[in-house]
Amino acid sequence: MIAWRRPACSNLGRVPVATPEGETPSPPDLPKGPASLLGELRALPELLASPAAGAVIAYLAPVGAPHPVLVIPGFISGDSATFTLRMFLRSLGHRPHGWGLGLNVGAAHHVAEGIDRALTELYEEYRTPIDIVGWSAGGIIGRVLASHRTEMVRQVISMGTPIRMTTNQTNLAAVNEAFGRFFVKTPSKIDVDAVPVPSTAIWTRSDGVVPGELCRQTPGPRAESIEVRGSHVGLVSNPAVFYVIADRLAQHDDEWAPFVAPRRLRRLFPGA
């Protein structure tokens, strides 16, 4: 365990990290560097197509009971980045909420306190466990939150979130170097693999920010990883991601089962 750069008052101010003896080396061919970052340019057409694609997926997606959902943005992004996703969830009858903390600047004191307060307020308002959806670094926060506030969390869904890594395995090292003086740097080692609630890790092999293999969690009775096609930045507007989230939210509390891609959408899921 290491403390966040600015220790928080709550135990959310600590991020679990991999110990040397517990680290799993990443494959040698994981994409990293300028070439993989250039691949993120595909996010632009993905973002432009998301409203139409989202409407189609909303028609095809399963609809269960409405649930309150806390959506956490990625690093150096805010609630505006998750607007389309939240509108999609609202169209299905769910009650999505942004995190309301401005830009996600990393493991800062106000982030730890603010997200803890946001979850507690939603739990008290709806009087039921909350579903958490986190994009990239937002997924790290969501998984840590689920570990410390288990009774308040129904499940956690991460998108392009590094599950076990060291910073130099990703393109985050360059981001830290460029913005470290303005934002809180990403911890050098991260391990958020074990989550005590149902969890789904969505990843893409062509991720240009965090190598996709690092976004996969250890499979378990209530833990799975689902591969989609697309970019890291585009995950927050990816129709396949939208479908997976809708499918996971539609499950009953006591009937969790692995995701099965519908026949008509299997091309969106390489591992189907």
What secondary-structure arrangement, pairings included, does this model have?
Blueprint: E1 2-3, E2 14-15, H1 34-38, H2 43-60, E3 68-72, H3 83-91, E4 95-97, H4 109-126, E5 130-135, H5 137-148, E6 153-159, E7 164-166, H6 172-179, E8 189-191, E9 199-204, E10 223-228, H7 239-249
Parallel strand pairs: 3-4, 3-5, 5-6, 6-9, 9-10
Antiparallel strand pairs: 1-2, 7-8
Quickly list its features.
Rossmann fold; disordered N terminus; six-stranded parallel sheet; two-stranded antiparallel sheet; alpha/beta; single chain; 272 residues
Describe the structure.
The chain is an alpha/beta fold and 272 residues long. Mean pLDDT is 82; it is low at 1-11 and 13-29. It has helices at 34-38, 43-60, 83-91, 109-126, 137-148, 172-179, 239-249, and strands spanning 2-3, 14-15, 68-72, 95-97, 130-135, 153-159, 164-166, 189-191, 199-204, 223-228. 30% of the residues lie in helices and 16% in strands. It has a single domain, classed as Rossmann fold (3-Layer(aba) Sandwich), CATH 3.40.50.
Describe the structure concisely for a colleague.
The chain is an alpha/beta fold. Helix content is 30%, strand content 16%.
